[in-house]
């Protein structure tokens, strides 16, 4: 079977629908990701990415497909990050979380619903992404991130996204990313407030950000986390992760973006 010829016959105005990609993949005996890659290499864009428009070129879409992102935590922040990365077309997502859904997660965690209570968060993430974008391979790791497991969990990732709720583990993650030479996108939330930062290899952004902090968690223990804050901060984290994968320099290098949704203010503060 000539896949490229079949793709050209199936394409309409430079786009190919998911049903045609599935048909071609099944006939050729290849997986959805391989069919999507063949389309992009032929200059044909899967219809699901039509609205990426001129923001993401065909070459960049192919780069996203061939990249791996690791998301540490699949709760409030991580659920949105995983979903948005999959909708962007990042080809492989490693989702790491040791927890199951509890009832207090229902106010904000994207992959949670009443039937999922007691289910591992990464299992729900994998099931959801299989429905959203079958070309994306999600690797669900139902385990904790630790400094000892970092190489196994993170190596090969183009970017790591911090969706943790523990400051000490965050610092361990930042140190591991430095050791492995992987860029890290950090995000945290509390009540109406959030922050986003980017740490490139060789930098100590998170150590500077949390210098002198001795607690386990931040002020979210007191302020809580409503539905809207994680959606905003996770979207900003995803944008930064996308830029890193595509080789676009982040404006948040050595800086932290402070978000106040109550006052609707966004302020960037330089570190060091």
Quick synopsis:
By secondary structure, the protein is an alpha/beta fold. The chain has helices at 3-10, 18-28, 32-41, 58-65, 76-88, 121-132, 150-154, 167-180, 205-209, 220-223, 228-245; strands spanning 15-16, 45-46, 68-72, 92-96, 137-141, 159-162, 184-190, 193-199, 255-260, 265-270.
Throw out a few tags for this protein:
272 residues; alpha/beta; Rossmann fold; 2 domains; two-stranded parallel sheet; 11 helices; 40% helix; 18% strand; globular
Question: Would you mind describing this structure in some detail?
Answer:
Helix content is 40%, strand content 18%. With 272 residues, the chain is of the alpha/beta class. It folds into two domains: 51 residues, no CATH class; 204 residues, Rossmann fold (3-Layer(aba) Sandwich), CATH 3.40.50. It has an eight-stranded mixed β-sheet with strand order 5-4-3-6-7-8-9-10, sandwiched between helices. β6, α8 and β7 form a beta-alpha-beta unit. The chain is globular and about 60 Å long. The chain starts with a helix and ends with a strand. The mean pLDDT is 95.
User: What form results from the Cα inertia axes?
Assistant: globular
Q: How many DSSP E strands?
A: 10
Beta-strand proportion = 15-25%
Second-tier CATH architecture of the largest domain = 3-Layer(aba) Sandwich
Topology:
Layout: H1 3-10, E1 15-16, H2 18-28, H3 32-41, E2 45-46, H4 58-65, E3 68-72, H5 76-88, E4 92-96, H6 121-132, E5 137-141, H7 150-154, E6 159-162, H8 167-180, E7 184-190, E8 193-199, H9 205-209, H10 220-223, H11 228-245, E9 255-260, E10 265-270
Parallel strand pairs: 1-2, 3-4, 3-6, 4-5, 6-7
Antiparallel strand pairs: 7-8, 8-9, 9-10
Helix pairs in contact: 1-2, 2-3, 3-4, 5-6, 5-11
């Amino acid at each position: 079977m000539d896949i490229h010829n079949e793709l050209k016959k199936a394409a309409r105005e430079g786009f190919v629908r998911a049903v045609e990609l599935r048909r071609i993949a099944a006939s050729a005996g290849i997986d959805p990701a391989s069919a999507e890659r063949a389309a992009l290499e032929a200059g044909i864009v899967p219809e699901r990415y039509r609205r990426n428009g001129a923001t993401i070129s065909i070459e960049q879409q192919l780069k996203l497909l061939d990249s791996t992102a690791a998301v540490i935590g699949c709760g409030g922040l991580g659920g949105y990050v995983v979903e948005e990365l999959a909708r962007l077309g990042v080809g492989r997502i490693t989702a790491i979380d040791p927890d199951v859904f509890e009832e207090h997660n229902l106010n904000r965690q994207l992959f949670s619903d009443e039937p999922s209570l007691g289910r591992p968060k990464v299992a729900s993430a994998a099931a959801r992404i299989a429905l959203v974008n079958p070309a994306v391979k999600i690797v669900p790791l139902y385990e904790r991130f630790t400094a000892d497991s970092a190489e196994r969990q993170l190596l090969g990732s183009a970017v790591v996204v911090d969706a943790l709720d523990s400051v000490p583990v965050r610092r361990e993650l930042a140190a591991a990313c430095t050791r492995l030479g992987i860029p890290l996108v950090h995000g945290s939330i509390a009540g109406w407030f959030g922050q986003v930062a980017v740490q490139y290899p060789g930098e100590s952004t998170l150590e500077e950000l949390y210098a002198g902090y001795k607690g386990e968690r931040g002020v979210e223990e007191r302020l809580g986390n409503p539905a809207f804050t994680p959606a905003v901060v996770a979207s900003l984290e995803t944008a930064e992760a996308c830029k890193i994968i595509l080789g676009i320099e982040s404006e948040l290098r050595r800086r932290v973006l402070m978000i106040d949704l109550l006052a609707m203010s966004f302020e960037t503060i330089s570190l060091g």
